[in-house]
Every structure is written in structure tokens, then in C-alpha cells.
């Protein structure tokens, strides 16, 4: 047994003595701020912050109370502050108390916890069951009097620091570094799907083509007669309704009044140059149901012409033109011309698991058994 000599601390120079940890005082925002002030600073009130915290509490709790660890509530508050404002971490350190390294660690830990697949599938669901589909259709119809739409899709740039590798591919058309995030949402702005793995230079249409959303529609997991809204940046599809760039008077103009997506003149327009050819080829005869299959190169544009002719001509003409430029909600439409409650006899087994077959994209059923509502999660996983 080795005996170490006793050390007289009085004989140790002061600069070599162990110093007690000095912890900075941490701000108690729950007691310092009202709900209105919390919303201004963190985008959520007290109840909302606690709701988020409870989702990830197990992942954020420390195993020990040594070194005065941050509470899960404070980690969520730190993360919300950073996401809401984009302020430097040192500013959050000055405001809330923890050191900048602790702020950085809390943000990474909280975001990783929120990205857990079990949390994602709880909140991000793509509709495929009849009841959810019909509700989505009704919600969009009530907003714009536009039939058979269950969601809208768009890309948005999220600014990033210039990466060290392949820096040039992250520069978007507006000249700064970003990723291009595809978002699908319903009429209440709730997420139906999100894909965040593409550099900023990649076109919205390319991202959509390689996403699980396209798989859902083109493999028949979403019933026929369901559509998404999209802007001019997307190529034509029979399930994706985009505006006319140069609408002709009549049903095309009335269609555009309702879809009403602003034109971004800087954006590359996909496929519109061939519209005149498509228009001349259209047979002007109403159909009971829009064309279900794309059998020709311009089938999507033909489909859009058929769709606009079917739903925005004849009886609707006088009504639409009378309300052009005004709010469309509340217009009394003829049910035989524009039926928001049309149903389709198609179902998807809620227990079926589908791999989308594209890199980084997987689809899960929302429920674990047949008693669930059968809605599907369309979540895109970042590699």
C-alpha cells in the first residue's frame, strides 16, 4: 500500500489551489415574463413551452446533479430563443445565464431530441384515408372555392454558413448559401410532409420528383382525384395543379383567380412554353371525372385544361366573374358543378409499411393497428 504524504493547503501557493466552481445565475423566464412576453421572445407561451419540454424531457434530463446541469425546460427555452431569433449564442448566454458552450450543447441536444422519429410521426402525417382527405378538401374549398385539393407544396430557402465542401452547390438563385426545404402543408398550415436534405441550387421540381410525396401519388397510395397546389416552378403532373402563366379568358382565368399563387419572375418556369400546343390539342368536352392517367408527354397540361374546364366554366362563369378579385369564401356555388364532398372508393391498409425507394425517404403508417385512423406519415429523413 502506498502512503501519500499529507498536503498542507496553507503551504500551497494560492494560484495552485483548486478553485470553487462559480455558477452564473440563471434567469427564470417562467416567473419573469408573461405569456404575451414569452410568445414575443420564444414563439410559445408557458403551456406551449412545457408541452414541447415534455415531448423530449427524457432525452434532456441529466443523469446526475453534479455541476449544476441545465433543466430540460431551460434547454428548450434556449433552443426556442435561438430558432426564433437566430441571435448569437453569446447573446443568449448574457440573457439567460449559462455559458456559451452550454448554450451550444443545449441547442444541439434539444434539436436532436425533437428529430426523433417517434415525435416526427406524431405530428407530420400525409392524408390517405377518406375521412382526413375529405376534411382537407373541404378546408381548401372553404378558403378558395377550389375543389379536390388536399395540400399545397412549396420550397423555401433556409440560410446556412458556407460549407467547406461543395460550397458552390449550396448557393441559391438569390445568391446566398442555403438548403432548399420542401414543405407540404394543409389549409390550416399544418405540416403534411417536409424534406430538408437538398442544397439551395437544386430546383423545387427536382426535389418533388425525388420525394416520398410523389411516391404516394404515383403508386396509388393517395386516391385518384386528389391534388396538391404548386407554383409555376413545378413541372406539370396530373395530381399537381399549378397556375396558368398566360391564362385565356374563360375557365382558365377563373381557375387562376382561385388558385392565386403569386408569380416569382426570377424563378425558372417549368414547361409553360408548351402550353399553347397543349391547349390546341384539348378536346373541349366536359368529363364526369378528370383524366386519371398521364399517357402523353403533355398529359399534365391537358389534365389541367380539362380540370379547369370542368370546374370553372358553364354555370360558374357568371358567379366567378362577378366575384373576380374579391374574397371567394361564401360564394354560393352549384353543387353539381363544384362538389367539395365527392368521394372516392379507395383505401390503404393502415398496417402496411412502404419504403419509398428514394434515397433518404421513408413512409410510415401513422397507427400501429387497424384501429388507428390510418393516416400516413410522410417524413423525409436527413442522411
Estimate the global geometry from the Cα principal axes: elongated
Count every helix, treating DSSP H or I runs of 4 or more residues as helices.
14
Average pLDDT rating? 74
Any low-confidence stretches, pLDDT <50, length ≥5?
271-297, 315-379
- Broad structural category: alpha/beta
The helicity comes to 25-40%
Q: Give the biggest sheet.
A: 8 strands, mixed
- How many runs of DSSP E, i.e. beta strands? 8
Determine the strand fraction and express it as a percent band: 5-15%
Distance between the termini: 54 Å
Radius of gyration: 27 Å
Arrangement of strands in the largest sheet: 5-4-1-2-3-8-7-6
The topology string of helices and strands comes to HHHHHHHHEEEHHEEHHHHEEE
What report would you give on this structure?
It is a single chain. It is elongated and about 100 Å long. The longest helix is centred in the N-terminal third of the chain and has 15 residues, at 46-60. The protein has an 8-stranded mixed sheet with strand order 5-4-1-2-3-8-7-6, sandwiched between helices. β6 (354-358) and β7 (361-365) form a beta hairpin. The chain has 383 residues and is of the alpha/beta class. The two termini are 54 Å apart. Helix content is 35%, strand content 13%. The model is unreliable at 271-297 and 315-379 (pLDDT under 50). The protein has helices at 29-32, 35-42, 46-60, 72-85, 89-96, 100-114, 117-123, 130-144, 204-209, 212-218, 251-259, 275-281, 299-311, 316-322, and strands at residues 149-159, 178-185, 191-199, 227-229, 240-241, 354-358, 361-365, 376-380. Belongs to the HARBI1 family. Residues 1-22 are annotated as: Disordered. This is Putative nuclease HARBI1.
Amino acid at each position: 500500500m502506498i502512503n501519500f504524504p499529507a498536503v498542507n493547503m496553507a503551504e500551497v501557493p494560492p494560484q495552485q489551489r483548486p478553485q470553487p466552481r462559480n455558477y452564473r445565475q440563471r434567469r427564470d423566464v417562467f416567473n419573469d415574463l408573461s405569456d404575451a412576453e414569452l410568445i414575443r421572445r420564444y414563439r410559445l407561451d408557458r403551456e406551449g413551452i412545457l408541452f414541447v419540454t415534455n415531448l423530449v424531457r427524457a432525452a434532456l434530463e441529466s443523469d446526475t446533479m453534479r455541476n449544476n446541469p441545465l433543466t430540460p425546460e431551460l434547454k428548450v427555452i434556449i433552443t426556442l430563443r435561438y430558432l426564433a431569433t437566430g441571435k448569437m449564442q453569446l447573446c443568449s448566454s448574457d440573457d439567460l445565464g449559462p455559458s456559451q458552450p452550454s448554450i451550444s450543447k443545449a441547442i444541439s441536444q434539444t434539436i436532436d431530441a425533437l428529430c426523433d422519429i417517434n415525435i416526427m410521426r406524431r405530428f407530420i402525417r400525409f392524408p390517405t384515408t377518406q375521412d382526413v382527405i375529405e376534411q382537407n378538401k373541404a378546408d381548401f374549398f372553404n378558403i378558395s372555392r377550389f375543389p379536390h385539393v388536399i395540400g399545397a407544396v412549396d420550397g423555401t430557402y433556409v440560410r446556412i454558413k458556407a460549407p467547406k465542401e461543395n460550397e458552390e452547390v449550396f448557393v441559391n438563385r438569390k445568391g446566398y448559401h442555403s438548403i432548399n426545404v420542401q414543405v407540404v402543408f394543409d389549409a390550416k398550415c399544418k405540416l403534411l410532409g417536409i424534406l430538408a436534405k437538398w442544397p439551395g441550387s437544386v430546383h423545387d421540381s427536382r426535389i418533388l420528383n425525388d420525394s416520398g410525396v410523389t411516391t404516394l401519388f404515383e403508386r396509388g397510395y393517395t386516391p385518384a382525384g386528389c391534388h396538391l397546389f404548386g407554383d409555376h416552378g413545378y413541372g406539370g403532373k396530373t395530381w399537381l395543379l399549378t397556375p396558368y402563366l398566360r391564362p385565356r379568358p374563360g375557365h382558365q382565368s377563373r381557375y387562376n383567380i382561385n388558385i392565386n399563387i403569386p408569380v416569382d419572375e426570377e424563378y425558372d418556369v417549368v414547361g409553360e412554353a408548351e402550353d399553347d400546343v397543349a391547349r390546341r390539342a384539348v378536346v373541349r368536352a366536359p368529363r364526369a371525372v378528370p383524366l386519371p392517367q398521364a399517357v402523353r408527354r403533355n398529359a399534365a397540361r391537358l389534365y389541367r385544361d380539362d380540370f379547369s374546364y370542368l370546374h370553372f366554366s358553364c354555370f360558374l362563369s357568371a358567379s366567378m366573374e362577378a366575384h373576380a378579385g374579391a374574397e371567394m369564401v361564401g360564394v354560393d356555388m352549384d353543387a353539381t358543378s363544384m362538389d367539395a364532398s365527392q368521394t372516392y372508393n379507395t383505401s390503404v391498409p393502415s398496417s402496411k409499411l412502404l419504403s419509398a425507394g428514394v434515397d433518404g425517404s421513408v413512409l410510415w403508417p401513422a397507427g400501429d393497428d387497424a384501429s388507428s385512423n390510418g393516416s400516413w406519415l410522410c417524413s423525409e429523413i436527413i442522411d
